[in-house]
Amino acid sequence: MLEGTAAHLWMCWRAFYLLAAGVALACEARLPCPPSCRCNAAVLEVNCSGGQLTSVPNGVPQDAKLVNLTHNTIKTLVNHQFYNLSQLFHLDLSDNLLAFIEVEAFLGLRSLLTLRLARNQLKILSVGVFAGLKDLRLLDISSNKILVLLDFTFKDLASLELFTADDNDFVFISRQAFAGLTGLKRLALDVQNLTAVPTDALAELSVLRSLHLHQLGLTTLPDYSFHHLDLLKELVISRFPQMESLSGNSLFGLNLTSLTITHSNLSAVPYTPLRPLVYLVYLDLSFNPISYIQGSLLGDLLRLQEFHLVGGSLLRIESAAFKGLVHLKVLNVSRNLLTTLEEGSVQSVDVLEVLGLDGNPLACDCRLLWLVRRRPYVDFYGCPPTCSTSVQLQGWNFLDFAADDLSNLLTCRRPRVLNRKPEDVRADQGHTVVFDCSAEGDPQPSVSWLNPQLRHISPVGRIRALTNGSLEVRYAQPLDSGTYICVASNAAGNDSLPVSLHIRALPSKTHFQTWLVSPSAPPGGSGNHNLPFDLKTLLIAATIGFFSFFSSVSLCFILMFFWSKGKGQIKHTATIAYVPRSAVSNSNTGATSFKETGRFTMKLI
Ligand SMILES: *[C@@H]1O[C@H](CO)[C@@H](O)[C@H](O)[C@H]1NC(C)=O
Ligand SMILES: *[C@@H]1O[C@H](CO)[C@@H](O)[C@H](O)[C@H]1NC(C)=O
Ligand SMILES: *[C@@H]1O[C@H](CO)[C@@H](O)[C@H](O)[C@H]1NC(C)=O
Ligand SMILES: *[C@@H]1O[C@H](CO)[C@@H](O)[C@H](O)[C@H]1NC(C)=O
Ligand SMILES: *[C@@H]1O[C@H](CO)[C@@H](O)[C@H](O)[C@H]1NC(C)=O
Ligand SMILES: *[C@@H]1O[C@H](CO)[C@@H](O)[C@H](O)[C@H]1NC(C)=O
Ligand SMILES: *[C@@H]1O[C@H](CO)[C@@H](O)[C@H](O)[C@H]1NC(C)=O
C-alpha cells in the first residue's frame, strides 16, 4: 500500500515536471526575438551578428544577458538606446560603422559588465557618452579613429578594470582624460601620433597594474615618464620604432615584475634604468638591434627568472652577463647572431630550464660542450640549436650528438702565436713603433697585450692595442722601454710572445731644452718624459727661432762692418751677447749647442 502511494506520488511529480517543461517550452517559443536575430532563451542571448542591421533593432527581450550586434552597418546610437535592458551583462557593437554615439546612449544598462566598440569609425567620444555604466568592467574602443580624449570622458566608469584603446589616431590626451577611472587595472593605449608619454593623464590611474603602450614616436624615453603608478606590475612598450634609448630615470618610481620593450631601436640593454627594478621577474627586449650583453651589469635584478631577446643583433653575450641572477630559468636568445653561449654567462646552469638558442650561427666546439651535456635537463621548445659554422658539423642539431662522440666532435684547438721570432726593437724617442701579433687556433683566439707592469693595454691612448692585434706605441718615450707580452687566448687556453722595446733618449740633452720646459730647472734635469709639447711642434718652433736668430745676427755683422769701415779703425773681434730664444736640434744637421755664457766671440775681417 505504502509502495503504491509512493509510486503514485512519483508519477504525479513526473507529470507535473513534464507539464512545467511544456509550459517552459511554450514560453520559449513565445519569446520575442527581433527579426534577423537568433535568440537563445536558455542562456538569454540575442545574436544579431551579421544580420544586415542599419540600426539597433527594436524588441530585444528585456531580460537578455548578452546582445551581439557585430558585423552590421549600424552608424549611430541615440540616447537611451538601450534604456530598458537593465539586466544586460554583455554588449558587443564591434565591426560596425559607428561614427557617432549620443550622450547617455548607454543610460539604463545598470548591470553592463562588458562593452565592445572595436573596429568602428568613431572620431570623438563626447563627455557623458558612458553615463550610467557604473558596473562596467571592460571597455574596448580599439581600432577606431579617435583623435582626442577629453577631460572626464570616462568619469562614470568607476568600476572599469580593463580598457583597450589600441590602434586609434590620438593626437592629444588631455591631463584629466582618465579622471574617475579609480578601479582601472589594465590599460592598452596606442599613441602613434603623440609626441610624448601622457604622463599626467596616466598619473590619475592610481591602481593600474598593467600598462601597454604602443607606437609612440619618441627617440628617448624621458625621465619620470611613469611616476605615481606605484602599483604598476607590468609595463609593455612596443613598436616605438625610433626609440634608441631610455633616460636613466625613465622608469623611476616603478616597482615592476614584468617589463617588455620590443620592436624598438634600442642598441644597448638599458642597464641604468633597469637597476632599481629589483622585483623584476620577466624581461623581454626582443626585436631591438642590441649587439652585446655586457658582463656583470644586470646583477641587481636578483629575482629575474626570464630573459628574452629574440630577433635582435646579438653578437656576443659576455661572460658573467647574467651574473648574480640565481633564479634565471628561461633564456630565449633565438634568431640572433651568436656564435656561442659560454657557460660562464649564466650564474648557474643547473637552474636553466628553457633555452632558445636556435636561429644563431653557432660554432659547435668545446665552448658548447656544457650545453650538449645538459640537454636532457633543458627544454628547447622543439627547436634545438644547430651547428652552422664548423664544416663537418654543419646542420647538426644538439639532439643528434651521441654521448660518446661529444669530446671528439666538440673540440677546440689551443692558440698559437704565429711568426714567433723574438722581437727586439730599438728606436729613438718620439718615433712610433708597431709590434704585430697574429695567432691561430679554433675558435679564432683573441689577442691582447700586457705592458711591462703586466697590465692590460686598452684600445685607446698613446700606447694602444689595435683591433688587428698589433700594439702601437706613438711618440715613444724612454720610459716606455721594457718587455711587452702578446697574449692570444681562446676557450682552449692561451699562448704568449714577449717583445722588447728600447727607446733611446734624444741626444740633444742640453740645458736649453730644459730651459724651455722650465727656465729655473738645472741643466740636465730629468724632465724629458713630461715635456708639455709634442716633438713636432718643438721642431717647428725651434727651426723658426733659429732662422730669425741667424738673420738678426747677420744684420748686426753687416752694420758693424760698415761702422768699422767708416771709423777707419779695424776691430778684429766682436763679442755678441744675446738672449737665447730657442734650442735647435735637427736630426739631419745634428745638434747646435750654445755656450752657457749666452755670448760668443766672432772674428771680424
Ligand atoms: C552569433 O552568430 C554568428 C553568425 O551567425 C556566429 O558566428 C556566432 O558564433 C554567434 N555567437 C554566439 C555567441 O552564438
Ligand atoms: C597618425 O600617424 C599615422 C602614421 O604615422 C598617419 O598615417 C596618420 O595620418 C596620423 N594621423 C593623424 C591624425 O595625424
Ligand atoms: C635606428 O637607429 C639607427 C642608428 O642607431 C638609425 O640610423 C635609424 O634610422 C633608426 N631607425 C629609426 C626607425 O629611427
Ligand atoms: C614591490 O613589489 C613587490 C612584489 O611585486 C612587493 O613585495 C614589494 O613590497 C613592492 N615594494 C614596494 C616598495 O612597493
Ligand atoms: C623563443 O621566443 C620565440 C618567439 O617568441 C618563440 O617562438 C620560441 O618558442 C621561444 N623559444 C623558447 C625556447 O622559449
Ligand atoms: C695593424 O694596423 C696597423 C695600423 O693600422 C698597421 O701598422 C699594422 O701593420 C697592422 N698589423 C697587421 C698584422 O696587419
Ligand atoms: C694562460 O693559461 C694559463 C694556464 O694554462 C693560466 O694560468 C694563465 O692565467 C693564462 N693567462 C692569461 C693571460 O689568460
From TrEMBL:
Domain Ig-like span(s) in chain numbering: 415-500
Residues in the signal sequence: 1-26
Localization (cell): Membrane
Entry-linked InterPro entries: Ig-like_dom (IPR007110), Ig-like_dom_sf (IPR036179), Ig-like_fold (IPR013783), Ig_I-set (IPR013098), Ig_sub (IPR003599), Ig_sub2 (IPR003598), Leu-rich_rpt (IPR001611), Leu-rich_rpt_typical-subtyp (IPR003591)
Keywords on record: Disulfide bond, Glycoprotein, Immunoglobulin domain, Leucine-rich repeat, Membrane, Repeat, Signal, Transmembrane, Transmembrane helix
Keyword match Membrane: yes
Coiled-coil segments: none
Segments traversing the membrane: 538-563
Membrane protein topology class: Single-pass type I membrane protein
Cited PANTHER family: ANTIGEN BSP, PUTATIVE-RELATED, INSULIN LIKE GROWTH FACTOR BINDING PROTEIN ACID LABILE SUBUNIT
Stated name of the protein: Leucine rich repeat and Ig domain containing 4a
Species of origin: Nothobranchius furzeri
